[in-house]
Specification:
The chain is an alpha/beta fold and 497 residues long. Helices cover 36% and strands 22% of the residues.
Length: 497
């Protein structure tokens, strides 16, 4: 039985839906509502049909945010109205499990209901391509065009229970298959046998219990914070960076832990802390993982990094003979470039890392386990505790101090502010960074920001977010003092001081 959802009432304007660096996100009960979720699902269904892939089906996943399971069911009922079979989870899952299932099943696409690390008031809609990677710019442009073209049209749905009875819905739990899959590239038994204490913080998200379950039954001792579902995320944004993870850092500093492993709200981003509760920056994590693959696993395939990632990558590339490719911000650029270049790894500043041996998509759980493996190998080499292994990285990759400042603006004025600043910022660009002259200015190829380089290799990046009303100011320099000075320079440029 197929029902039809009414079109928006006369005189109402359909929301303009744009997919940013990682999906479409909006405030729940405002722009993010059942009508707009159905519009997205309708466009994905049309895309799949237009490419003759409807028989391959669509994989669904959803996170622990408010009403995510209900939004996922609403999207599924639209897909089912097109007689496209779906694979639907038994409960909330890490986002990358959709990518994993798309690849394993040869599905046409994946749909994930999540707003990742956004504030708890938001939810979102992510699309996975048939490769398991985030939908690329061409696919997203096609979907966006279909959403716009369908504005005002009624959308057909098929009741979930009816479709399930007809055999169009398959339920899935990916845990066992995922454990076996990663076990082909990581010695899970060796990790389980390690005599170490690890604190895991999934920030109340859908990655809860995954690492403890994967490493259960051995000598390793794992303590997990914030395992329960809490759509409020304890009042912080579920992004695994300070101050959101300050409780975990304090717990490590006050306890007897050797390492901290962190996840974001949908578990596709990784974070870490050393034995002192010192946060390991996302740029350090990128360099650590690149070092791990080259030094400990002997790999020499290329790596892919976003424009806001660490310059340690180039220095490590020179040391190990590894080519480094740079792309715009967002895994919708990283994943396709990894596939194109045969890369062993791709990563972005926000803590998302993908691996050629695994998936061309972010997987915070796998990345955290790779970090654990790295530190255990460094321990065997005499570089222990974790802080000593990190110090060794800087001995070979050079110094790196990093911080990001998010400048928030009112959602209503943000579009006009962005348009104005993109014109004005080049006129008030900084002349100096970290006490030295700016020697190069780079206009981002996505036309959403500017990057400035100092003579010593440090850099400052000003970039407009594609998913939130904010301007991000990033910098990497040789010292914390230089980072503070660069951030002040960047904020002054944005605010016109």
């Amino acid at each position: 039985m197929t029902a039809t959802q009414p079109a928006p009432t006369a005189g109402s304007e359909a929301t303009t839906i744009t997919f940013g660096t990682d999906g479409w996100r909006a405030k729940i009960a405002d722009e993010y509502n059942f009508v707009n979720v159905r519009r997205c699902a309708q466009a994905v269904s049309e895309y799949v049909i237009a490419h003759g892939q409807e028989k391959r089906g669509i994989v669904f996943a959803y996170d622990r945010r408010f009403a995510s399971e209900h939004f996922a069911a609403a999207a599924a009922e639209v897909v089912l109205a097109h007689d496209i079979p779906i694979v639907f989870p038994d409960g909330a899952l890490p986002t990358q499990m959709s990518s994993f299932e798309v690849v394993q099943r040869g599905a046409a696409a994946g749909i994930v209901i999540t707003a990742s690390h956004n504030p708890w008031t938001d939810n979102g809609f992510k699309i996975k391509s048939s490769t398991g990677a985030a939908a690329g710019p061409e696919m997203l442009a096609d979907v966006e065009a279909r959403i716009a073209a369908g504005a005002g049209r009624a959308i057909a749905t098929r009741p979930f229970a009816d479709a399930e009875a007809a055999g169009l819905v398959e339920r899935y739990d990916p845990f066992n298959a995922y454990r076996d899959f990663i076990g082909r590239n990581l010695d899970l038994d060796a990790l389980r046998a390690a005599d170490v204490d690890v604190l895991v913080d999934p920030l109340y998200g859908s990655g809860s219990t995954w690492i403890p379950r994967l490493l259960a039954g051995g000598r390793i001792r794992i303590t997990e914070l914030h395992s329960e579902r809490n759509p409020y995320f304890g009042g912080v944004n579920p992004e695994p960076i300070p101050p959101n993870v300050d409780e975990a850092l304090r717990t490590i500093a006050g306890g007897h832990f050797d390492l901290g492993l962190l996840l974001d709200g949908d578990a596709d981003r990784a974070g870490a802390a050393d034995e002192r509760g010192t946060f390991v920056t996302t740029l350090q994590i990128y360099a650590l993982l690149m070092y791990y693959l080259a030094e400990h696993r002997g790999l020499r395939q290329p790596v892919v990094k976003t424009v806001n990632e660490t310059s340690m990558a180039e220095r490590l590339g020179e040391r190990y003979g590894v080519t480094v490719y740079e792309v715009p911000v967002g895994f919708k650029y990283v994943g396709p470039e990894m596939i194109k270049t045969g890369a062993m790894m791709g990563g972005e500043e926000s803590g998302g890392f993908g691996f050629g041996m695994h998936l061309p998509e972010r997987d915070g759980i796998f990345a955290d386990l790779m970090l654990l493996d790295l530190f255990l190998r460094e321990k065997a080499a005499g570089r222990w505790p974790a802080s000593r292994a990190i110090a060794h990285l800087h001995e070979i990759a050079g110094p790196s101090s990093y911080r990001r400042l998010d400048l928030h603006f009112d959602r209503a004025v943000y579009p006009a502010l962005k348009d104005r600043l993109l014109v004005e910022l080049p006129q008030r660009a900084p002349k100096e960074l970290a006490g030295g002259p700016v020697v190069r200015t780079q206009v981002l190829t996505t036309n959403d920001g500017f990057k400035f380089f100092a003579v010593d290799g440090s850099w400052l990046l000003l970039r407009f977010s594609g998913t939130e009303p904010l301007v991000r100011v990033y910098t990497e320099a040789a010292s914390a003092a230089a980072v503070d000075a660069n951030l002040a320079t960047g904020e002054a440029a944005v605010r016109g001081r």
